[in-house]
Amino acid sequence: MGVKILSFLFLNFSLVWCGKHDIYKGCSVYSVLLRNTDDLHTLYKLEVESNLDIWQHGLPGVREAVVMPTPENRDVFFEGMERNGIGFYEKIHDVAQALKKNENDQLERKMKRNNAVPFSKYPRYAEVDEYLERIAREYPDIVTLVNAGPSFEGRAVKYLKISTSNFTDPKKPIYFMDATIHAREWVTTPVALYSIHRLVEDLQNDERDLLQDIDWIILPIVNPDGYEYSHTDDRLWRRTRSYRPEISETCYGVDGNRNFDINFNTLGISSDPCSNVYPGPEPFSEPETQYVRDILQDDRIQLYLNIHSHGNYILYGFGNATLPHNVLSLHQVGASMGASIDTKKLDKAGFYAVGNSNLVLYGSSGSAQDYGQLVVPFSYTLELPGYEYSFEVPDDYIDQINVETWAGIVDSARLVKLFYAERINSES
User: Fold this and answer.
1) Phi, psi of 109, deg, nearest 5
2) How far apart, in whole angstroms, are the C-alpha atoms of residue 179 and residue 263?
3) Distance (Å, whole) CA 122 – CA 189
4) 3-state SS class at 278
5) pLDDT in tens, 46-87
6) Which chain regions cross the lipid bilayer (predicted)?
7) What is the model's pTM?
8) 354: closest CA among 389, 329, 374?
9) Long-range contacts of 39-45, Cβ-Cβ distance < 8 Å, separation of 24 or more
10) Is 341 helix (H, G, I), strand (E, B) or coil?
11) How far apart are alpha carbons 343 and 311 in whole angstroms?
C-alpha cells in the first residue's frame, strides 16, 4: 500500500457528546507528502476553490503539509489527492476529541502553574492587557502604552513603545513586531510578550545595545476579537469577527492577512465570505488592520516582523513572486535570523526555511508582510514551530519557543541597525 491511500475509513458518529468543539465532529487531519511544487499548487487550489483548511502548507521534499478537510469538502480532497497521486495519511482521527483533550490538558497545567507569567502560558486578552498596563506603569521612563483604538467588537487594541529617548532620536531605527493577526495561532502572543520582558524587565548586560540603539513597537494581539473567540467558542477560528449582514448573514470576519492594500483580492484568496482566505470587501475594511497600517507609516521603522504559527519559516515579499529591490539584504537578514534560532531549537524541530513567500510556499495578496515591504526596508512573516502539534502546541514548549525566537530577534535587530545607519548616512 505504501503511503497511497486505497480506502477511507469514515468516522463512527455513534459517540455523541456535547461541547464547544462539536462543530469539528466528523473532521480528521491529514499529513500530505509533497513531492514537488505541483503537489503544493494542488493543495493551494483546493484551499481557494473548496475552502480546504490548510494548517501547514509544507515544503516539497522537506516537510509535510497538514490539512483538515470538513465533511463538506472531504471527498473533493480525497479525489484531488488520488487523481494527482499524492500520498497522505491520517494524523488526527477525531479533531473534536483532540481539541477537547487538549483543552482539558491545558486546564490541568493551568491549575498547577497558576502563577505563571503571561509569556509562559497562553494568556487571555484580559491578562495581556493587564500585563501591558503594568509594564507601562512600572517603567514609565522607557515604556509608553498606546491604545490604537477599538476592535470591531470594542476591545482596545494596545501596544507598547519602548525607548530610552521617547522616540525622539532620529538616529535610532524602530523594530516593529506584532502577533495573532490569525486568531488560532496562540503561540505567537507569548513571543511578543517575552520580547517585552527581555527588553524591559530582564535586559541582559550583553543586550543593552538593543535598548540604547533601537526603539521598539510591540503589538501582542492584532486580532483580539478573534483571539477571544478562539478561546470561548471555536479553537480553530482564524479570521477577525466583523459582521456585515449585507454580505453574509451567517459568516463573520475576514482574513486579516489578506486585508492589506497591496495586490488586494488577486491571489490566494476566495470570494466566499465564509472562507478562511476571504480578504474582505475592500482593503483595510477591518479596524485592526488599519492600526497596523498606521503604525507602519513611521519612516524610522527599519524592520517589521509579522509573527505567525506554524511551520518554521522566515518569509519575505512579494506574494505574487516578484522580488523587492533589496532582496539580497532581505535574504541575508532573514537567513541570519533563522540560523540564530536554529542554534537553540529542539532536535525534533525542523530547520527554518528562508525565502520569498510565493516561491517557498504559495501565492498570496493583501498580506501584512507585503504591505510592510511597500513602506519599510525589511518586512518578514515569521512562522513559529508547531512540532507535531500544529496549533495545539502544549504550553510546556512556550519557554523554549520564546528563548529560541528571541535569539533570532536579537540577531535581526543588530543587523538592521547597521543597515539603518547606512541608510541615514546616505540620506544626509
Assistant:
1) -65, -35
2) 22
3) 8
4) coil
5) 998 999 999 998 999 999 999 999 999 999 999 999 999 999
6) none
7) 0.93
8) 329
9) 39/84, 39/86, 40/65, 40/361, 40/362, 41/362, 42/80, 42/84, 42/86, 43/67, 44/268, 44/362, 44/363
10) helix
11) 17
